[in-house]
Amino acid sequence: MVITLLAYCIVLGQGQTDFPPDGVLGSRLEPVDDSGLIALCSEMERSSISAKNFQRAALEFHRVTQAVFARRAVVPFRFPTWLSSEEMRAHLSQESLRYKDFLLNHADNVQMEVRIVSKETAMQERTTGGEHLRARAAQLRKVDNQANEIKNLAGDNALEWREQETPDGVRLYALVSRTSIEKFREKLKLASVPVTGPWPATAFFNQLREKD
Amino acid sequence: MTANRNAILTPAQGPEQEASLLEILDHVLNAGIVLHGSLVISIAGVDLVYLGLNAVLTSVETAFKHIDQKQLGR
Q: Of the four listed, A25, A54, A160, B59, which is most buried by Cβ atoms within 10 Å?
């Protein structure tokens, strides 16, 4: 039987510590603190999460992270991430500057996401390579134009944008102040596109790496 | 933070339930720190294809159902 820590998220070690008491599958939530950071973890057997309860465990993991994120910035772990307490402390110590920088800079920011999907079904009917490329270029222009419209609609409610191409369009990540979430949603209603969030601002985390 | 913002991230009831569930699973599985031992490999930036995620989860669950049925049949 191997007991390890299931890692949820990292927060600054200062401020409120009223974390939810329970983690996934009835486990206790335990803070591991090092270098001014707190990593929220549950001591669990790896084998306790299986294909049968994976979806339930993933949703419970999300609820824990979300409950913490509702009050403060977090650096979430992907589910499931398993570490020993020594590995976790070593990680916090090694990455403390990077994480503190992110958590302090984005204490009041969240990430909103907009998915733009091109409904260009005629792509499949193209028979030649040239036709396909022209259709693809037209599709990309359409998606690009829609992305620009959305950015204009959001205006200064979005502090910054990131984009990620998807096979059928693009995902837009907006960095939004916690106080502007409702305004952001309201503005984007006009665009009739699916908007999700608020999420932790993970799409903006790599900025820290660029500073290295 | 308002109560409304939490509601967005809770799987919705009704026809939108599956989409919301997949959004959440996509984030839980794709957005966050990835550790291998103590080495950070990457964070965010990997877009899981929704159909793919669904297929993987379904196939694993289906596989277990088949295993259970075989065991029950013995």
A: A54
- In tens, the pLDDT along A32-72 reads 999 999 999 999 998 899 888 999 999 999 999 999 999 99
Sheet holding A195-199, edge to edge: A158-166, A169-177, A109-117, A195-199
Is A56 in CB contact (< 8 Å) with chain B? no
Distance separating alpha carbons of residues A204 and A163, to the nearest angstrom: 11
Residue ranges of B 8-27 with Cβ closer than 8 A to chain A: 8-11, 19, 21, 23-25, 27
User: If residue A199 lies in a helix (H) or strand (E), which one and from where to where?
Assistant: strand A195-199
* pTM, to two decimals: 0.76
Name which of B19, B34, B40 is nearest A95 (Cβ-Cβ): B40
Cβ(A152)–Cβ(A182) below 8 Å: no
Lowest-pLDDT range, A68-72, A171-175, A208-212? A208-212
C-alpha angle B46-B47-B48 in degrees, rounded to nearest 5:
115
Residue with tokens 């057997």: A45
ipTM for the complex shown: 0.79
Q: Tell me the sheet residues that pair with A77.
A: B33
Residue of B1, B22, B23, B61 to mutate, testing the A interface (most A Cβ within 10 Å of its Cβ) = B1
**Residues of A in Cβ contact (< 8 Å) with B9:** 62, 66, 197-199
